[in-house]
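## tool: complex_structure
## caller: assistant
## args:
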Amino acid sequence: MTDIQTKLEIFDRIATRRNERRGFLRFAGGGALAVGGASLLAACGNDDSDLAPGPTPTPTPAPALNDADVLNFALQLEYLEAQFYAFAVFGVGLNASLLTGTGTQGAVTGGRQVPEFANGTGDAVIREYAREIALDEIAHVAFLRSALGTAAVAQPAINISAGTVASPGSFTAAARAAGLVTANQIFDPYENENNFLLGAFIFEDVGVSAYKGASVLIANKTYLEAAAGILAAEAYHAGLVRTVLYRRGLGTPATPTTAAVAAVPALITGANAISNARDSLDGTVTNTSTGVIGDDDQGITGTDANVSNIVPTDANGIVYSRSAGQVLNIVYLNGASVSSGGFFPAGLNGNIKTSAANA
Amino acid sequence: MTESNHLIDALDARVERRNDRREFFKSVVGAAAMTAAGATAMTLSTAAAAQSVTDADVLNFALNLEYLEAQFYSYAAYGTGLDNSLLTGTGTQGAVRGGTQVNFNFDPRVAEYAREIAQDEIAHVRFLRTALGSAAVAQPAIDVSVSPTSAFSVAAQAAGLVPAGTAFNPYSSPENFLLGAFIFEDVGVTAYKGAAPLLTSKTYLEAAAGILAVEAYHSAIVRTTLYAKGIAVPALRTSADAISNARDRLDGATLDLDQGISPLSQTPTNLSTTQAAVQASNIVPLDANGVAYSRSTSQVLNIVYLNGSAASAGGFFPAGLNGTIRTSTTSS
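## result:
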């Protein structure tokens, strides 16, 4: 049985200890506290009568985020990634049972199976990588939904389409912002393996920076460890995609036992252009008071032609963090402070949904 | 994904694994908690209240591991080790045994990866030393040499890569370099993941999360390259698998914390239509929830000391680590 008082005392102690700039953390799942509640987060409600006496919370002027908010933010990024990979790899989207929840549920626009994945032509290992990543992202959706229980938000409307020249979809908009295609072209990430890799590249590093930025927002140690584990998964994914783009992009010379592989320069220039676009969207100025860094994205080649840049790191060899607002600048494809756009045409569900003012 | 796609298993696995004397936070999730019917049972028991590891202890533990990685990659990529100014500190300073520049002629891409990884690991050493200041431990004695009894060879023999009594040389080719690197990188990921919740400072936590991510990127470089080369040279995949199995034996049989790279047959679930099984790579070692594994400090030491029994030295650290966290328990 749940020892509610013990649990909440623990959370109060944790919360008191976390006197960071984000203020006091409440575990308000929005519903009434109920013994027998479906999940930890939904059950931690506002019913003070069940709270054990604890330290008086320090009031904070700004609305505080709780673990449920952070996990729901992550969940929606996972919805986006999972749907993109599910369609690209398997030609279908997520099961309807995985999409329900609070807020406004929306549909997926766009998405189709990459022909080389469907008919078995193309590079066999790239197909295998794509499958692996797809399965991982679907698992992340299921895991976060399980952790959140009834507090999980529904999948909002998602656009993962190429669209048309006249009516561009999110991928075309992103590609145009990056200069990959002109205003008279579309970018279709499902057209072939190389386009798929660039499409995947858009998301994976963003996922890493999002989870890193969120790591300091999660109070519950169990969820923190889980988030660290998903951070690691996204970093593995990003490393995989960037390594493939790099190696395919530069090609390899002949060896005594293998033939030379020709370079595909568009993969290098494409990835680097996408990185620059992400940098432009999420702010170019480093804010020393908030710690938010302007130049927080790197392409896969650096200044030294003899050294790869698979891992986007700062001078300490550490990856960058993004705030939720910055992540939303990128997925909304808008440097201004907005609540929808780009890959999320109706915006995110839940409490974290507004991009930062970085335009 | 199976029914074990479930927070309960992940949490139970964490509880099982926390057999350190420092466990300070346990969660036990009742089976019904995550079902639609819902039930109470997210029970939290207060753990041993005072945690006996400090942030400095944890960062110094990480620093020891970074010394090892940085030296291996620095020698492999550049033929030289770290400047002595980066090696001083508390405890007993030791020398690096071995280390040679790899001949990357037949794969310049791998050379480029080696340089990049070396630069990252050296940066990690600098960062941790700066964070620790005068509390930083010195680099202990490190063995990255090549001989029939060297750490790399003992590891390779345990994995069956080379016969007993035979040396394994991680510097002799890009492929051997990748296998040598493979020994470290996944361990680094699990080490940082296991240690992150031990940190109390949010600043250090964020930094540890950032280094965790970098080690995962590195591991992906190594695993992806071995996997792709494995089309032409299948032994590269099976060798990586064998090293993974050897790590699993060292850190205990109860939990499977390690995975090879060879492809797996997976049946997709949670899609809108029923799917047939497909063959997928296994670049990313994750549990059924898509979450990376954690290792306790003891389990990490089991691996780097190349000893499943309790030890304070051995393997890549012939004199043991410096600092507080340096003794493993017998793995189970």
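## assistant note: Residues 1-51 of chain B form one domain. Chain B has two domains: 1-51, 53-261+295-304. Handing back to user.
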